[in-house]
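note to self: dont lose this again. the chain is below, predicted strucutre after it. 622 aa total, dont forget to put it in the shared folder this time
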Amino acid sequence: MRESAIGLAFSPSGRFVAYVAPSPGGGAIAFIANVQSGDSRPFLNSGKDGDHLRWCRFVTDQRLVCRYTAIVKDAGLLLGFSRLIAVNSDGSGIKQLGQASSFYDAGYRQSDGNVLDWLPGGGGSVLMARDYVPESGKTGTRLIRSKNGYGVDRIDTVTLKVTPVEAPHPGIDGYWSDGQGNVRLMSEAGIANNLLTGKTKYYYRAAGSRDWKTLTDFVDDDDFTPLAVDATSDSLYALKPLNGRKALYRIKLDGSLSSELVASHPRVDIDDVVRSANGQRVIGYTYATDKRAGEYFDPEYKALVSSLGRAVPNLPIIDIDQASADGSKVLIFAGADNDPGRYFVFDKKTKTLAEILLVRPELENKKLASVKPISVTAPDGTSVPSYFTLPPGKEARNLPAVVLPHGGPSARDEWGFDWLAQYLAARGYAVLQPNYRGSAGYGDAWLMQNGFKSWRTSIGDITASARWLVSQGIADPKRLAIVGWSYGGYAALQSAVTEPTLFKAVVAIAPVTDLSLLKKQSEDYTNSQVVAAFIGTGPHIVDGSPLKHAAAIHVPVLLVHGDLDQNVGVLESERMDEALRAAGTPVEFLRFKSLDHQLEDSAARKEMLTKVGQLLEKTIGR
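---
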């Protein structure tokens, strides 16, 4: 149920790739594969229960850096932790790259840091931002750690020799490198009464200088988003608002701070930049209309992407991930709506393209459904961009159908492979995924306040999508169901509240059910003010909470939740389960122990999909 290969990385020589594959019980194993022979061998596993091995990346052909994450329950609170380690390609020589823990640590170090720059040619060293926690309560010695805050060090991943680059600063929460080993940008989190405000202040450093200068005052993330520092142009690429959408700007870091518009789009936000395969230059930017697109400044990369598109015409989603140190070999991902994706190595010298790994080999040679971008007309005449998946071999006529709203709510669906939509289509269901108003990526007017404060419009677009399927003759009006995850789960339940006879079954995975509870559960965290402001106050807190109207739901409901969910606490589903049972509504609650919001366990996902399939077959047939 999980991808067979994630987090692929290319060795400096181009001879090896590293990747992470799932193991039983939600674990993972890191492998190294020889590109030429195809032989692979494991070298690292996810360790103790609850640890998640996320990725590994080469520093040299023999040395890698890997990230672990975990969620720990402490005094009733769920806390996320992440750690970076260095390890040899044979699994030996494991060393932790962050500050070592001490019994006297004055606080939690949830993240020990992140790699800012992989320093190609650096002989096994990386540039790393590290979180320092001072000691307290230690007596009888002068050897007390006093460093406090986020700093930057150059670290030899073999010897752990540390060369300080930037002294730790309390309140600083981020740094950016220019891809050539120079720290050029720094961010300070806005804090009031020990709580995050949701605003950030940015500082920059001119080339060759050690002095920090103010780049912005404290600003909302929506008003300024730094993406990358480019040394070749001595500039910062950042997103800023323009005509209600995010546009890409190039800001000079030479002291003038002169700003130049690089790109904007009349329909959607610009969302990211593309860096060269070695990470040292900004070479383009990306955005998503009906399908994701990229524009390249660099003629070589533009030509390469074009030629790859001709070489694999059935795999139009192409990403150039990494390159060998000399640039002669490039690691490429290519996928499609009906292909989960595969990795290739392109050799520029020999002009050969070799397939090396499949993302989901179990689906190879299976007929998967195609996804079509469409527009759904809402009752007020608004065209809602959506994606329609037709079951393979079926005619779009009088089918059982599932509406599948995305999570977020400030997110969006895109054209491509979606494992949940493909599962539903494989069972014979037409699937519609609306990018309802409240979705991100289409500008401020479409985003509205957000999908909670403006829930009536968001939910209205979702229920209109179901009615559109019927009006087009695609769906049988007596065989409609709704399935959603996170905000999508909230939307599924709230749709059943507002339109009690529209859907015959509801599946809500990790759903928000009570907006007041969502705010309350954030009160013990530093982002509580940000969460409270996002959810807001007013009548929508009650009107827009499915839990408060559980008695209005009369169709069978399947609730699914992991009990280590930091995004949406499992209590949201527990209370919804109780309320539905009290109302006499058929409900099944599938609760997974020690799993988080993503339910990253193949056995758990298989059980969930089995339950989903059983409910849908019972209520809307196949």
